[in-house]
C-alpha cells in the first residue's frame, strides 16, 4: 500500500479538498500535484524509506509536499519551522535526513550548521518550476509496516522522541471523526494547531482527507481573534483546538461570537480540559467541546468524553487492556490497540520497551482510574501522582480544583510535586494572573486553597509572568520544578 494514495482515495474529483488564505484546490488537482511533487523528489534522488523534513508554515504547498514525499516512497517528517537551530540540528543529525524542505530563514540556518550535511530545498519559484517539469509518477507501493511518516513528541515531560508511523496507520485515522462526530464529505475540518502536531495532522488533515471532506489551513499561529476570523470566513463545521486557546477565547468573548457561525462540534485535546472551561464554552456557544485523548504515538484520538461525567471511553476501533493483577482502585497505566497506533520510536530502545508491546499494543505514560462500563478517569502522568502524608495526590486534580476559582483574573495555573528542605514531598503551584489583576487572582486563589483537604494544599504559590509551553501549546511540565527552585528565594509558603 501507499499511505498517501490511501488518504487521497475517497475525495470526489470536483470536491474542494484544501483551503488556505485565498487558495483552494479540488481533490482532482490535489492528486495531480502530489503525483508531480513525488516525481520531483524521485528526480532529486529520494529513495524508499529516506526521511525528508517538512519545515514550513501550514499551507497547500505543505500538504502537497508532505504527501508527495510519501507517494514517492519516502518518509515525511513534519517539524516546527520555528524550532531553535540547535534542536533542529540535533533532529537532522539523528534522523539521517535526506533533504529538508523549508523557507528561506530555515534554509539559511541549515546551511550554517556545522557537521550537518542535509540539502535544503527552498519553497520558492525554482522549486515550483522543478515540480512543474516533473513527471506524474505512480505511488510507490510499500509494505503496510514500512515507515511512512514520523511525528515528534511534544517534549512536555522531557526529551522529545521521533515516533515512527507506518503506512497502515492512516487507514483508520478517521475513526474518531466518523464514529464520534459523524463526519462525512460535506464537513469542513479546521484545527487551530499546526500540522507538525499529531493532533491536527491525524484528526483534521488525515481524517478530513479520508472522508473526502474539505480541510481548512491557516498559515499563521492561532490567536483568539485569528480563530474568530477563520471560523467567520471559512465556516468550518468541525473545529479542533486545545484547552489553553478555548480558555483564552472564553476570556476575550470570542466564544460567544462563534455561536451562530455553524460549527457542529468542537473538540479539545492536547491536555486536560478543565470542567469550568467546558461548561463556560457550552454556555457561550451551546456546544460543549468533545474531549479527546491521544498522543504523538496515535494518529487518531483513542479515548473521548462527550458528557458531564468527565470519564473517558474508547473511540471506535480502540481496544483497552490492563496490566495483569493491577488494583482497579489505584490509578494505573493502560494499554491501547488501534490500527492508527505507531510502530514505535526511532532509536529509543528503553522507551520502546516501556511503551510498546507485540501485537500492536501501546501504553502512554498517563494514569487512569477504572470505572464501570470501561470508563476511565484521567489522573495525570505517572510522575504527576504523588504521595503526601501517606495519601495519593494528583497534580491534575489540584489544578482542576483551583483553576476555576480564579475566574477571568487567572490566566494559567500548574501544579508540580517538589521536595522540601526536609526531604518531604510537597506541592507547588505556579500561576499567571490576567494583566493588572494579580491581587484579585491571589486573593481568590488563596481562598480556594483553604477549601482543599490539607494533604492536597500547595505549600507554595508562585506568581510568574508566563508558564513554559511546548511548540504545540502544551504545558512543558519538565520545566516546572526548575521554575519553582528559581522562585523559592522570592516567594514564601502560603499553606502549611
From TrEMBL:
Entry's Gene Ontology molecular function annotations: acid-thiol ligase activity
Signal peptide range: none
Domain of life: Bacteria
Protein name per UniProt: AMP-binding protein
Domain AMP-binding enzyme C-terminal per the UniProt entry, residue ranges: 409-474
SUPFAM superfamilies the UniProt entry points to: Acetyl-CoA synthetase-like
Gene Ontology biological process terms in this record: secondary metabolite biosynthetic process
Record PANTHER family: ACETYL-COA SYNTHETASE, ANTHRANILATE--COA LIGASE
Pfam family, one: AMP-binding
Residue ranges constituting the AMP-dependent synthetase/ligase domain according to the UniProt record: 14-346
UniProt keywords, alphabetically: Ligase
Amino acid at each position: 500500500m501507499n499511505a498517501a494514495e490511501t488518504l487521497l482515495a475517497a475525495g470526489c474529483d470536483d470536491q474542494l479538498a484544501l483551503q488556505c488564505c485565498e487558495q483552494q484546490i479540488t481533490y482532482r488537482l490535489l492528486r495531480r500535484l502530489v503525483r508531480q511533487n513525488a516525481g520531483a523528489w524521485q528526480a532529486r534522488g529520494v529513495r524508499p524509506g529516506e526521511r525528508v523534513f517538512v519545515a514550513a508554515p501550514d499551507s497547500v504547498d505543505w500538504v502537497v509536499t508532505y504527501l508527495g514525499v510519501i507517494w514517492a516512497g519516502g518518509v515525511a517528517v513534519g517539524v516546527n519551522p520555528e524550532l531553535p537551530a540547535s534542536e533542529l540540528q540535533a533532529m537532522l543529525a539523528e534522523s539521517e535526513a535526506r533533504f529538508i524542505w523549508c523557507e528561506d530563514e530555515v534554509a539559511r540556518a541549515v546551511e550554517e550548521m556545522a557537521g550537518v550535511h542535509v540539502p535544503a530545498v527552498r519553497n520558492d519559484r525554482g522549486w515550483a518550476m522543478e515540480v512543474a517539469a516533473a513527471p506524474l509518477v505512480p505511488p510507490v507501493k510499500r509494505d503496510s509496516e514500512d515507515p511512512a511518516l514520523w511525528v515528534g513528541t511534544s517534549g512536555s515531560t522531557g526529551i522529545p522522541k521521533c515516533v515512527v508511523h507506518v503506512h497502515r496507520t492512516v487507514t483508520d485515522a478517521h475513526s474518531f471523526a466518523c464514529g464520534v462526530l459523524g463526519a462525512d464529505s460535506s464537513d469542513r475540518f479546521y484545527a487551530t494547531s499546526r500540522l507538525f502536531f499529531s493532533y491536527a495532522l491525524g484528526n483534521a488533515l488525515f481524517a478530513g482527507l479520508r472522508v473526502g471532506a474539505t480541510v481548512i489551513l491557516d498559515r499563521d499561529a492561532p490567536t483568539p481573534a485569528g480563530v474568530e476570523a477563520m471560523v467567520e470566513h471559512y465556516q468550518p463545521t468541525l473545529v479542533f483546538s486545545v484547552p489553553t486557546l478555548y480558555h483564552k477565547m472564553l476570556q476575550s468573548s470570542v466564544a460567544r461570537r462563534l455561536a451562530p457561525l455553524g460549527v457542529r462540534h468542537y473538540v479539545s485535546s492536547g491536555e486536560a480540559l478543565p470542567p469550568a472551561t467546558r461548561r463556560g464554552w457550552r454556555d457561550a456557544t451551546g456546544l460543549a467541546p468533545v474531549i479527546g485523548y491521544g498522543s504523538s504515538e496515535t494518529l487518531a484520538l483513542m479515548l473521548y468524553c462527550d458528557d458531564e461525567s468527565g470519564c473517558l471511553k474508547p473511540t471506535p476501533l480502540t481496544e483497552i487492556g490492563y496490566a495483569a493483577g493491577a488494583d482497579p482502585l489505584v490509578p494505573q497505566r493502560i494499554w491501547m490497540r488501534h490500527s492508527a497506533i505507531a510502530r514505535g520510536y526511532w532509536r529509543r530502545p528503553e522507551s520502546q520497551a516501556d511503551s510498546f508491546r507485540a501485537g500492536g499494543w501501546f501504553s502512554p505514560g498517563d494514569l487512569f482510574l477504572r470505572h464501570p462500563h470501561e470508563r476511565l478517569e484521567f489522573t495525570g502522568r505517572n510522575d504527576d501522582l504523588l504521595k503526601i502524608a501517606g495519601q495519593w495526590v494528583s497534580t491534575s486534580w489540584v489544578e482542576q480544583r483551583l483553576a476555576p476559582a480564579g475566574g477571568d483574573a487567572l490566566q494559567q495555573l500548574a501544579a508540580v510535586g517538589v521536595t522540601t528542605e526536609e526531604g518531604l514531598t510537597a506541592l507547588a503551584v505556579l500561576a499567571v494572573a490576567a494583566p493588572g489583576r494579580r491581587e484579585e487572582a491571589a486573593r481568590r486563589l488563596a481562598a480556594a486553597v483553604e477549601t482543599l483537604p490539607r494533604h492536597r494544599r500547595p505549600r507554595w504559590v508562585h506568581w510568574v509572568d508566563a508558564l513554559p509551553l511546548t511548540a504545540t501549546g502544551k504545558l512543558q511540565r519538565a520545566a516546572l520544578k526548575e521554575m519553582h527552585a528559581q522562585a523559592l528565594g522570592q516567594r514564601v509558603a502560603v499553606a502549611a
